[in-house]
Amino acid sequence: MNLHSHAFNEGNPLAETRTRWAVVLTAAMMVAEIAGGWIYNSMALLADGWHMSSHALALGLAALAYVLARRLANNPRFAFGTWKIEVLGGFTSALLLLLVAFSMAYQSIERLFSPTAIQYDQAIAVAFVGLLVNLICARLLHVGGKQGHDHGHGDGHQHHHHGEDLNLRSAYLHVLADAATSVLAIIALFGGKLWGANWLDPTMGIVGAILVGTWAMGLLKTTGRVLLDAEMDAPVVDEIRQVIAESPIQASISDLHVWRVAGGKYACILALTVSEAATAEDFHRQLAIHEELVHVTIQLDRLPSAPS
């Protein structure tokens, strides 16, 4: 017996619209910063532009994920909905970002040993505009998505409800990281202009490359875990074990599989060995306190001495 819900893809039209606007603004500023860095010989500005390109790509994938998830929501081929489209997009984005990070680092190291004159005033102006665009995008994407919160239950269980839009949250974090890189570029350019520290510009380019590479590796790890269903260390797994351990019906877990089917929603296959009369529905009612379990399949194996 199982409890099945197809409501894995909760539409978020406002988030989709604002993400599209963030893509347009970020892409326009990306072109301006890369062109400015090239014209004014600023590696920090170039690094910030390439970093912004990585986030333009990530925001574009986020917007595309909303579109595809909405259009394919009723496609029967997707047994557990279309949420993993955005996860796959994030994984692809992370692979491309690693290439961008290596390119940024190579160019910055080359410029560190072969410095060229930088037109600081123009480069600083472009960097400030880039920071302003980042802040505007952050405001657009900070739409007050539902945050995770706990619901107490009379039986002593705490239910952890995660209704946050992870796609939107990811896009928001990209923009904040890009704003941090813009600040690094501005610091490097001011340092070179005021104190003649020309080495700061390529150095901040290297720092920017490290930021992009670190973000890409973190995204690879996170999305890879979801795509490979490597989530048996998620808190909900311990919560399932706790429910069975504290059940008034004596039962032991012989097999348990849990995987994510949406941002904060999980599917579960649970095999139990029982020594007394019980039905799968008894355990479904006990697990129902955890609303993040949207698809639960339970198999009961009775001991020979257990009544049917």
How do the helices and strands line up, and which of them pair or pack?
Layout: E1 2-4, H1 13-39, H2 43-71, H3 84-113, H4 120-141, E2 149-152, E3 158-161, H5 166-195, H6 200-227, H7 235-245, E4 251-262, E5 265-274, H8 280-287, E6 293-302
Parallel strand pairs: 5-6
Antiparallel strand pairs: 1-6, 2-3, 4-5
Helix pairs in contact: 1-2, 1-4, 2-3, 2-5, 2-6, 3-6, 4-5, 5-6
Mean pLDDT: 78
In whole angstroms, the N-to-C terminal distance is 16 Å
Poorly predicted runs are 1-7, 144-163
Number of helices: 8
> What kind of sheet is the major sheet?
4 strands, mixed
What topology, given as strand order, has the largest sheet? 1-6-5-4
Helix amount, in percent? 55-70%
CATH-defined topology of the largest domain: Alpha-lytic protease prodomain-like
β-sheet strand percentage: 5-15%
Rounded to an integer in angstroms, the radius of gyration calculated over CA atoms is 25 Å
Description:
This protein is of the alpha+beta class. It folds into two domains: 8-227, Alpha-lytic protease prodomain-like (Up-down Bundle), CATH 1.20.1510; 235-302, Alpha-Beta Plaits (2-Layer Sandwich), CATH 3.30.70. The protein is built from eight helices and six strands; from the N terminus they run βααααββαααββαβ. The chain has helices spanning 13-39, 43-71, 84-113, 120-141, 166-195, 200-227, 235-245, 280-287, and strands spanning 2-4, 149-152, 158-161, 251-262, 265-274, 293-302. The strands form two sheets. The protein has a four-stranded mixed β-sheet with strand order 1-6-5-4, covered by helices on one side. The protein has a two-stranded antiparallel ribbon with strand order 2-3. A hairpin with a 5-residue loop joins β2 and β3 (158-161). α2 (43-71) packs antiparallel against α3 (84-113) and α2 (43-71) packs antiparallel against α5. The longest helix has 30 residues, at 84-113. Residues 1-7 and 144-163 have low confidence and may be disordered.
